[in-house]
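Question (not urgent): is this output format expected?
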Amino acid sequence: MLYMEYKDYYKILGINKSSSADDIKKAYRKLARKYHPDTNKDQDAENKFKEVNEAYQVLSDKEKKAKYDNIGNSYSRFQNKGGNPNDF
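Got this back:
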């Protein structure tokens, strides 16, 4: 079975759990501009850009964010019990 490692989406975007939807969007836009492969030629920029997009896709959607927050640090238990990483 393929497992996805736990990623702290709040840390990736540089925000905390109590951040508003507007704060999430602002953080995403700032980092997306910074790491966009068309403007940042650093070798790791594309991977960072994808990671930022992934974090935003989860945290900007109320249902996905609720699931993510509910699982939180219990992610390894979720994996061990056969949780599907594609649930996000």
